[in-house]
Amino acid sequence: MHTLHVTVMRFALFDSQRIEATPNVTGTCPGCGGELVARCGTKKIWHWAHKGRRH
Question: What is the pTM of this model?
Answer without folding.
Answer: 0.78
